[in-house]
Amino acid sequence: MNTPAPIRKIFEGVATRPQMFRLFDRHSQRPDRWQSDAAPLYSGEWFEIDEALYDYMLNILPPLWMCGPIFALREFLTGSTTSIFLALRIDGKPRYFHGYCDLSDPTSVETMRATIFERETQPVRAMSREELLEHIWSSTANAYRGYAGDRFPPVMQGQRMVMLWSGTNGTLLKLLDDLTDDEIAAKLPVHMRHLPDIAA
Question: Which terms are listed as keywords in the entry (predicted)?
Fold first, then answer.
């Protein structure tokens, strides 16, 4: 199974309501869904929402806690991992975000806040290869993505795969992490195909 970075942006742009609910459980197809601890998969994932969705989630249930413009959802996803919603002022404008934090780590919420702020205050809009791959996974319909199963070599089993279109061979499955730059571009919306890489 893939081991994502501790904190990562998983969707580019402001998620709509349907997208938000889909992003909440974007690992639902994993083959070991009921056998393993899902916290490492979800903890650290974040994406942007709008003010209406932030307010909606605040009013569903009384939050577990609220500290200024940051609150935690009362219902835990798994173990000590739950949804955190943040309102941050970035470049003079209010923006809103959702992230999964493992509350057993007392620094997780502040680390998430600081990471989002640093990422979103970059002077030039850019995306890393990892962010491009996460966006592709997040925005691909379940019918066109999945996990390598028993018919694949053992070293590939459990890894994320997406369906590609080959002009000569029709559709084919390929490991998400093995997509070439051209294949990544083909899976992205037009306005995201020529974004620069994030400077190291």
Answer: Plasmid
CA distance 172 to 170: 7
Domain ranges of the chain: 8-120, 129-192
Written as one letter, the residue type at 77 is L
* pLDDT exceeds cutoff 60 at 5: no
What are residue 98's DSSP bridge partners?
A: 47, 85
DSSP-assigned states of every residue in 65-104: EEETTEEEEEEEEETTEEEEEEEEEETTEEEEEEEEEETT
Cα gap 7→5, rounded to integer Å: 6
- Residue 54, burial from CB neighbour count under 10 angstroms (0-12, 13-18, 19+): buried
pTM of this prediction?
Answer: 0.85
Q: Which two tokens stand for residue 193?
A: 């195909």
Strands 145-147 and 160-166 come out as: antiparallel
Q: 79: Cβ–Cβ under 8 A, 6 or more apart, which residues?
A: 37, 39, 102, 104
- Burial of 51: CB neighbours in 10 Å, binned 0-12, 13-18, 19+: exposed
User: Which SS3 state, helix, strand or coil, does residue 130 take?
Assistant: helix
**Amino acid identity, position 22:** R
